[in-house]
Design a protein that fits this description.
Elements: H1 3-22, H2 27-34, H3 38-45, H4 53-62, H5 67-75, E1 89-91, E2 98-103, E3 110-117, E4 121-125, E5 133-141, E6 144-148, E7 151-155, E8 160-162, E9 169-173, E10 179-187
Antiparallel strand pairs: 1-2, 2-3, 3-10, 4-9, 5-8, 5-10, 6-7, 6-9
Length: 188
């Protein structure tokens, strides 16, 4: 794991602890609200383990934040210009999913993220990760299968999908090649 990812992991650990404490919540309170075990939260807050994307979404939702909103708070940025070399990168330790926060500011309604999903990997994000946002996915390379509830969409390079109402959603790369896609989010 490179230094950028390690540094972001430390900032995430600090931010999660800060969000929890600012609300006056114990580890038990956050565990009950997020569905993440108290022991796991404790290890994440001490930067002993790197959380998966699904766990981060659950924790962000407990704080009434999007994943991007939580990442933004952890990153501490807010500049209008987002230099490629300074864009925070995070890797899901479970799937190898790599997320780059291309653009996000608290005073701007649009966020831009790029994701690389390794071959034969998938990530399922709960309905709560889509509350208060609208999003679309634009595939840059490879193929991506998005399953929203019972509706399945297969996207190739250049294809774009605007998301429907919030529902549990699975992003799957069912091929033997990496898939890269852009996620555009608008806060509602």
């Amino acid at each position: 794991m490179d230094q950028t990812i390690d540094d972001l992991g430390q900032r995430l650990a600090h931010r999660l602890r800060r969000e929890r404490k600012s609300r006056g919540w114990s580890l038990t309170d956050l565990a009950e609200r997020s569905g993440v075990s108290k022991a796991t939260i404790s290890k994440i807050e001490r930067a002993e383990v790197s959380p998966t994307a699904v766990i981060l979404v659950r924790l962000a939702s407990a704080f009434d934040l999007t994943l991007a909103g939580l990442m933004l708070r952890a990153e501490g940025h807010g500049e209008r210009l987002s230099k490629a070399a300074e864009q925070p990168v995070w890797r899901d330790p479970e799937t190898g999913y790599v997320r780059r926060q291309v653009f996000s500011r608290p005073d701007h309604p649009v966020e831009l993220v790029t994701v690389e999903l390794p071959p034969r990997r998938s990530v399922t994000l709960p309905t709560s990760s889509y509350v208060h946002i609208r999003q679309l996915v634009w595939v840059q390379s490879g193929n991506l299968t998005i399953t929203e509830g019972s509706e399945r969409h297969v996207l190739g390079a250049g294809d774009c999908l605007g998301f429907g109402p919030p529902i549990d959603t699975t992003f799957a790369n069912e091929t033997n090649a990496p898939c890269t896609y852009v996620v555009a989010l608008a806060r509602t």
